[in-house]
Amino acid sequence: MARRVGICAVAQTTVEHDKWYERFQGMALEVLEKLREQVAVEFSRHTGKAGIDMSINVSDDVFDARTISDNGMTDVLGAHFGCEEKVAQEGIQAIYYGLAAIQSGHCDQVLIIGHCKESQPKSRNMVSHMAFDPFFTRPVGLDFCAAAGLQAQAYAEKTGITDEQLAKVVVRARENAAKNPYTPEIEPVSAETVMQSEMLADPIRELHAYPVSDGAVGMVLAAEDIAKKMTDRPVWITGVGNCMDSFFFGDRDLASNFALRKAAEWAYKRAGINDPRGAFDLVEISDQYAYQHPMWMEGLGLCEEGKGGDWIDNEGPDKGRVNPSGGMLAGNPLILGGLFRAAEAALQLREDAGNHQIDDVKKALAHGVMGPAGQFHSVVTLERG
Amino acid sequence: MNKNRNVGIIGVGQSEFSSHREDVNQPEMIHEAVVEALNHAGMTIDDVDCIVHGNMELFEMIHQPDLWHVLGSGAYGKETMRVTTGGTTGATLCCAADHLVASGLHDVVLAIGFEKLQEGHTTGGITNMADPLWARQLQTGALTGMTAEQMINEFGEDRAKRASMKYRIMMDRHAMKNHKAHRRFDLQWDQAEDLMVNSPALVGELRMIHMCSQSDGACVMIFASEEKAKQFCKQPAWMKDHITVHREECFHIFGDAPVLMSHRYAAEKLFERNGVKDPKKEIDVFEMYDPSSWWGLDWLREFLLFDGDEHLKMVENDEIAIDGEFPINPSGGVIASNPIGATAMVRVAEAALQIMEDAGEHQVPKTVNQAMASGFGGTMWTVLFLMTRDIPW
Question: FRET partner for B325 with CA separation of 20 to 30 A, picked from A18, A311, A337, B383?
Answer without folding.
Answer: B383
